[in-house]
Structure formats: C-alpha cells, structure tokens
Amino acid sequence: MLVVGSKALTYHFPKLERKVKDIDIIAENTDIERLITFLNPTKVKSQKNITTLIDIQNRDKFFTTNNVEILNSSESNSLKKYLEYDSQNSEIEHGLRFASLEVLLSLKKSHINFPIKFEKHIKDYNLLLDLLKEDKLKEITKSNFIETEVRIGKLKTPSLKKSTDNFFGQSEGLVKYFYVHDDLHKVMAHYSRPIYEDMQNNESNAWCEKSLWDNFSFEKKVKCVLEESYVIALERKIIPMLNGISEPISSKDAFNWSLMRICTTLCSGWFREFATDNWSKIINFYDKNYVLKFLEAESKGLIKKI
Fold first, then answer.
1. Do 140 and 106 form a contact (C-beta atoms < 8 A)?
2. Are 303 and 297 in contact (CB under 8 A)?
3. Which of 153, 193, 284, 299 has a CA positioned 20 to 30 A from the CA of residue 109?
4. 3-class SS at 200?
C-alpha cells in the first residue's frame, strides 16, 4: 500500500505548512478489506475506484485523521504502476510505504487541469516540479489522466480551430460582453500590441501557432498568460460586477480565478501546460493596477462598448 496526498507530502517536506485532514492511500482490494477491519470506520462510502472510510474508530500514531480515502488499484492500470514503481520503498507500518516524489508529481500532474481544490494542488505541483524539473513518469501520468476523465467526466475546453467570430460565439449565452474584446487586450498589452497577435499567422482566425510561441522568451510567455488573465478577469468578473450583474469580487480574486480557468477548462495544450507548470512564477508578475488601467482607458474612450 502506498501513502500519497498531504500525508506523503509532509513526510518529504516536514516544514511544509499543511494540516493533514485525511489520509490518502493507494491499495488493492484485499488491502482495502484489511484496512476496513483494522480501522473500524462508522461508515464506508464506495465510489468508482475510491473507497472512503469515514470516522475511523481505531486511530493510532499514524492514522490520526477522521477519514481515510483509498484509491483502488485493482481496477486501475496507472495506480498498479505507481505501486510497482515504489515497491522497493521502505515499509513503515501496517504494510504502508510513502510514495516517492516522482509518483506524487505524476499524480498531481494527472489531476491539475481539473478545477478541484485548484490552489492547493497547483502549489504542490509547482513545488514538486521545481524540485524534480520534469515528470519522469509521463506515460503513467497520461494513463491516470485518462482514467480520471472516465471517472469524473471528460475535460472540455473551447476549440481555437475556427474564425475569431465563431470562437467568441461559443460563449454566447454564457458570457455577456460589454466591450470589444480586442480593445481590452490592447489596453492590457505589455508591449505596443497584444502578445497573442505575435502567435497568429491569420488575424481572422483564433488559432495560435506553437512554432511562433516557441520563439518567445520566458518573460514574454509569462506576459502573454498575464494579458489573457487580465482580459478574462475583466470580461467575466470585474466588468459584470461594475454593471451590477454579478457578485462583488476583488481584482486579485478575479485574476486568480481567471488564471485558474486558463490552467483548467478554458485552454488546452501547450499554452495551458506553460501556465500550470509556471503558475507560481506567473503570479509573481501580477500587476495589481490592471483594473485601474481598464478604468482609465474606458474614461478616455479607448475601449468601444458593444
């Protein structure tokens, strides 16, 4: 059996400020039955590939939480491979081993694009990635991602392979636009024009070329993600709030939300991967005055109303 999640992370990083609320374990069917007998929970909740032991009665120096969540490896090829990869790790007690950093990174990467407890997981993911530099278990990661989609639903993102008009038409009925989208990009631009334009061979199409992106410096890539984040935050949170059709939100929370969306369900492929892999660096470049820039530009008539 393999201990993963916060319990394993705090084992590898004892100084990490993290309260372990429940213990996550990868185990086979027979081990799950043994844990149920040993821990004596008042309730057992079974879902596809996940068994949760609620309100365990037999706590000890290791099992200190109310709940234990068990990922069932008997029905999962990727979880079986994690067990195999770490099979030589030192056993602690109860037949348990702590997962390696490589396995923890792979698990985080396979789940990071799903918007569930995003801020907690993205911090862990960036911590592990900065240390290990790369995911050494890419094939297992890919397999676990696919199995996760089967379990909780396919991750859907907008398609860029269409004209600009049709691309924005995808959000019709979901997003109310108050200003011309391109005008917002121009106001949020770090340079003389929006960076996304440097990724396009055809201005009438929303598609961006990876070959052009690859020529960008790291700083320009970060600023490109920031520009997109500011525009999304303005269009979907700040401007609707200012027009009285959405709940109050701070400029920082709106930015955090928009960057989360870029890392999860609003983008895909290499742009999303850069945003997730460099999330902790991107937020360090955050401009707290982006809303003020919008308001000043709007007052000068630099942004056209729809």
1. yes
2. yes
3. 284
4. coil
Q: Dihedral, CA atoms, 71, 77, 79, 83, nearest 10 degrees?
A: 130
Q: What is the pTM of this model?
A: 0.88
| Residue 271 contacts residue 213 (beta carbons within 8 Å) | yes
Gyration radius of the chain over CA positions: 23
The two three-digit tokens of residue 36, written as one number: 């149920």
pLDDT tens track for 3-23: 999 999 999 999 988 889 999
Query: Cβ atoms within 10 A of the Cβ of 27, count?
Result: 24
Strand order through the sheet with 67-72: 41-47, 50-56, 67-72, 22-27, 2-4, 97-98
Domains of the chain: 2-152 (3.30.460), 164-299 (no CATH)
Termini Cα distance of the chain = 58
